[in-house]
Structures are given as structure tokens and as C-alpha cells.
Specification:
The protein is an alpha+beta fold. It is built from 9 helices and 17 strands. 44% of the residues lie in helices and 20% in strands. Helix 1 runs antiparallel to helix 4, helix 1 packs antiparallel against helix 9 (386-447) and helix 5 (291-305) packs antiparallel against helix 8.
Length: 452
């Protein structure tokens, strides 16, 4: 406010009067703006909590959005002779595996040279293993070491490794092929006889061979150590040949994984409902009587209770696997049987044991529970979702309160200036009257002097 000394001339408490007028004008507007700011702050906090709760629920949904999230299996392998994986769809079962022979690639050695720095000749070296082949150009000045480097760095190299080995007797080139299998023997040829010593004259030290295993006594041969779909949906990798030793493998559906996914889903859903109930509490909620919360509760309830069309399996709703909704709107797996019906716990346990892939379809199919819930949350929490747009609008409205305070301050200053002009005139007028009164009083006193 302006600082002046209104009332000095008249002796009236004009400063107090002006302050009272300005205060009377300011207080209602300031209270209104403060209430507005408090309301926006509370609502923004509630919307933020609401969005955070939806994001937390969405993070749980992300763990069950794919059929593969449910189709996990436990694999028990009795030894390290083999490694076993499945694609999640293998049938339960036990099998006896014996590794008879590992797949090998060819290993060969050139003739001896005096040292690794010896030159050989010039021309083209050609390396072939099965259908794979590549060439290397050798220059007259290339030593064994240089030839090794050219072979290993050739861009079309199919997995051949060249090394220079130096012994008491001399140095030679060693070739090791990663391409395994009986039909993939390594052949090294040349376009020039000067390179025969490191090509056609090379001696094979290890022939390529197939891998062989027995599955429940039945022989299976592969060109590599990977045996895929010998047992359907299972990949067995031979690690060590161990003739006469049996490795037992047992494959079963991972019910514990499915149970955890369901438990986490139910807990996350109920946490979301609890958060919405707290936010919309009529007395204490930051979003009391909020229409977005009422609408979302109704939409969530429909998704978790309605049947889903187009399900290939026997499950079309959460109630089919024992998940129902209680009177508070929360999900439950009821442990208590109802009449002749089995409990929700038993229903879920039976589904996990016998129909885990069908549970996966109920949640993770294109029209499943997870997809529907994700679409719903996106409509609220997405970049142009209801809550995102609402939060942006509230933030902007709150930011504009500063401008409203500044506008109020300007209006109050103008109002005070107007009052001071009006009361300044009053102060001047009263001051003049006071001066006239003093003069007249003095003059009258002089007209009637007291006699001695």
C-alpha cells in the first residue's frame, strides 16, 4: 500500500479509514484466491496420486501381457551332460537321455616350416565345409603369421580359425572349423601349387562328425549338438559325451509362476480400488465425489466380471478360474465353497494344474483381460488421456493464480489512490474550516477585552 500521512491537516484518523476501506475490499478477494489455490493444490495432488496408482497397476499388467508370460515350465536335469530349454508349450513328462557322441568340426595341420615368419607362395586359398566356402588371396611376401591373419579376418569366413603353432620341429598352420557334422568335412584347396603345403597337403587331425544321443533308448543323430524338437517344443543341447550314463530330465508346467502372476494381479487391482476409495472419500478424500473415479470403478468392474467373447479355451471370464468380486468391488479367490460349488481357491488350483495355457489366453490374448485393462488405463493415463489433460488444465489454472494476485494488488493500489484523493480533499477542506474557526475565535476574543 502507499505510505502517506492522510489526516494531518484535519486531525481526523483518515489513515485508519483508508486502511479499513482497502481491507474490506481486499479480504474477500484474497480469501477467494486462497481457497481457489488450496482447492487446486488438493485436486492436483489427488489427480497425481490417481495417475500414479494407475501406473503401478499398469506395471503389473505388463508382466502378464504376453502368452509367454504364463507358458513357463520347470525343467529338472539330473546331470550337466546336457542343457535343456522349452518354449513353454512342451507337454509334461520325464525322459532318459544318453549322449553317445558330440558333433565335431574338422581340425587339420599344414606341413612344417622353419618358423612363423617363413613365406610360402602366392595364389588363392579356398576353404569349404559343406555348403559354406570362402577364398583368401595370398601374396608372395606373406608369412605364415600374415596368412593366419588374412584367413581369420576374411569377411566371408564361415567360422574357420587359423593358428600358427611352433614346436621343437618347426612351425605349421592349424585350421579349426566350427561347422560340425559328418557332411561338413573341411577341405582346403589352392589355385597354385606353391600353396600346396598349407592346403592340399594339410593332414586332418580330427574329422568332422555328427552328434548322437539316445532318447529313451532311441538313437537320434544331428549335425550339431543342438537337438531341437526331438521332444516336441524342447531343445536339448549335448554338452559332454558320456556313454553308458543316463541323464534324466523332467518337464512340468510352472504352476508357481502362474499362481504368482494371478496373486500379483489380484493384489494390484485391489490396491488400485483402495486408492480410489481413499481419494473419493466424502469427508477426507482429495477427489471427493469425483466423476472420473466413479466412471473408472464402473469400467473396471465390467471388465473383471463380464465374459470375453472369442476365447478358444473353456475360460471366458475370471470367475471361471475362481476369481470373483466382493461387495466392496475388490477381487478375491474365495477359499470357502458355496453350496455344492468348489471354492475359488480350488478352482484356481485346478486351472493352474491342468489349463495354464488357457489361463494365459484369458489374460494375454488380443481381447483378453490384460489388453482390455491396458486400453482402459491408456484412455486415462495416456498422453491425451482424461487424467493427463485434467492435470495439465489444473496446473495451468494454478499457475494463473499468480496473475490474479498481481491483478488484485494493482486494483487495490488504484482503489487506495482513489480513496486518498477523495480523503485528501476532505482533509484539506476540514483543515481550512479549522483555520477559519481559529481566526474567528481569536477575532471575537479581541472585540470583548476584559476590564480591570
Amino acid at each position: 500500500m502507499n505510505i502517506t500521512s492522510a489526516g494531518i491537516g484535519s486531525g481526523l484518523d483518515l489513515e485508519g479509514i483508508i486502511e479499513a476501506f482497502v481491507t474490506a475490499e481486499a479480504v474477500p478477494s484474497e480469501v477467494r484466491l486462497q481457497n481457489k489455490e488450496d482447492r487446486l493444490t488438493t485436486e492436483l495432488s489427488g489427480v497425481g496420486t490417481f495417475k500414479s496408482a494407475l501406473s503401478s497397476f499398469e506395471s503389473i499388467l505388463a508382466k502378464m501381457a504376453d502368452l509367454e508370460d504364463f507358458n513357463k515350465q520347470t525343467i529338472d536335469v539330473s546331470s550337466s551332460d546336457i542343457a535343456v530349454t522349452t518354449n513353454g508349450y512342451a507337454s509334461n513328462g520325464s525322459f532318459a537321455i544318453e549322449v553317445k557322441q558330440l558333433a565335431l568340426g574338422t581340425r587339420s595341420e599344414s606341413t612344417l616350416f622353419g618358423s612363423a615368419s617363413d613365406v610360402v607362395g602366392s595364389g588363392t586359398l579356398s576353404f569349404t565345409a559343406g555348403t559354406e566356402t570362402f577364398d583368401v588371396e595370398i601374396d608372395p611376401t606373406d608369412s605364415l603369421s600374415a596368412i593366419r591373419d588374412k584367413i581369420n579376418s576374411q569377411s566371408e569366413n564361415f567360422g574357420l580359425t587359423a593358428n600358427v603353432i611352433t614346436t621343437n620341429d618347426g612351425s605349421f598352420l592349424s585350421y579349426s572349423s566350427e561347422i560340425t557334422g559328418l557332411d561338413n568335412e573341411l577341405a582346403v584347396t589352392t589355385s597354385d601349387s606353391s600353396l600346396d603345403a598349407i592346403s592340399t597337403s594339410a593332414v586332418i587331425k580330427q574329422n568332422s562328425q555328427n552328434a548322437m544321443i539316445e532318447v529313451d533308448g532311441n538313437l537320434v543323430t544331428k549335425s550339431t549338438n543342438e537337438f531341437k524338437n526331438v521332444i516336441e517344443d524342447v531343445t536339448i543341447t549335448a554338452v559332454k559325451a558320456n556313454i553308458g550314463e543316463i541323464t534324466n530330465i523332467t518337464i512340468a508346467q510352472d504352476e508357481d509362476n502362474g499362481k504368482k502372476l494371478i496373486d500379483d494381479f489380484v493384489a494390484a487391482y485391489n490396491q488400485l480400488r483402495s486408492t480410489m476409495d481413499t481419494l473419493s472419500n466424502a469427508e477426507t478424500g482429495d477427489l471427493a465425489f469425483d466423476p472420473n473415479i466413479r466412471q473408472l470403478k464402473s469400467q473396471l468392474n465390467s471388465i473383471v466380471t463380464d465374459s470375453i467373447s472369442g476365447m478358444a479355451s473353456g475360460f471366458s471370464s475370471l470367475s471361471d478360474i475362481g476369481i470373483t468380486i466382493d461387495r466392496t468391488g475388490r477381487l478375491e479367490v474365495n477359499p470357502v465353497p458355496i453350496g455344492t460349488l468348489e471354492s475359488g481357491s480350488d478352482t484356481l488350483a485346478n486351472a493352474l494344474e491342468s489349463n495354464l495355457s488357457e489361463i494365459g489366453e484369458l489374460f494375454a490374448s488380443s481381447n483378453g483381460v490384460t489388453a482390455q485393462l491396458n486400453t482402459l488405463i491408456e484412455s486415462y493415463n495416456g498422453s491425451d488421456g482424461t487424467l493427463t489433460v485434467r492435470k495439465t488444465a489444473l496446473s495451468l489454472e494454478k499457475a494463473n493464480i499468480k496473475d490474479e494476485y498481481e491483478a488484485l494488488e494493482t486494483r487495490l493500489r488504484n482503489y487506495e489512490d482513489t480513496l486518498r484523493k477523495k480523503f485528501g480533499f476532505l482533509d484539506q477542506t476540514v483543515s481550512q474550516f479549522n483555520a477559519t474557526s481559529t481566526f474567528l475565535t481569536s477575532a471575537l476574543a479581541n472585540l470583548n477585552p476584559k476590564s480591570d
